[in-house]
Amino acid sequence: MRGTVRKITLPRRLVADLMHASIRVPFVSLTRPLNIRGLSEARAQAAERPGWAAIFVKAFALVAREQPALRTLYVKWPTPAFYELPRSIAMVAIARVEDGQDCVLPQKVTAPDEMSLGEVDAMIRHAKDAPINEVPAFRKILRTTRLPLPLRRLAWAIGLNFGRQRANWFGSFGVTSVAAYGAGQLHALSPGPFILSYGVEKPDQTVDVVLRWDHRITDAALMAKALNRLEQVLNTEIAGELRANRQQTEPKSVRAVAT
Known about the structure:
This protein is α/β, with parallel strands linked by helices. Helices cover 43% and strands 21% of the residues. It contains 8 helices and 8 strands. It has helices at residues 10-22, 37-45, 52-66, 117-129, 136-145, 149-161, 163-170, 220-249; strands spanning 27-35, 72-75, 81-84, 89-98, 101-110, 173-176, 194-198, 206-214. It has a 6-stranded mixed β-sheet with strand order 1-8-7-6-4-5, sandwiched between helices. A two-stranded antiparallel ribbon has the order 2-3. A hairpin with a 7-residue loop joins strand 7 (194-198) and strand 8 (206-214). The termini are far apart.
């Protein structure tokens, strides 16, 4: 059957490179519904509601601040070793439409636990709406994606296998979701070491979370504890920040003074 040959766009080439880099990562998954009643109530009353991506990015970084394993990379050069980062770097999957085609590009958020929710949300929204050449993370990765295949493979190998370079290029954890398009669990692939995806908020105020990790770094027991702690952080630190922001934006009542 005769078909039509179409050129592979840069964003699709990037996904192909990403999948190639993910082939040999020994991923294990844990799925759990998290009760987010406290967060949901605080978010419903917030003057400005941050997106769910920003909420999960900051919440996971807060958990990783307490758990060094969640800031640890597996690197191969010069010899196989673990590389512990002093702070988290998130890579957020941004769904966009470029030249009439759907694509996904990674937005880098460094130390989201040290930022306000509003700042994290603003970075993610900028990556969704701004032209590609105005988002530094997009420019950097697509510049490499334009290289011929042998040079791309070399660039990816260097970026993945030296600890410092890996952190700069690929971060310490990823966040992705298809919740904007309806319910469903997403078991995404990446070079690792951690990738979190979340579903839609359910009527019982729970949300399904899938956490995938490189089994070379840690085991399921720690990941189960991390999800328990993530639930706590969502309903305490994150919900508390939303309430504090609401109180700051509410107009102060003026007491009438009799004369």
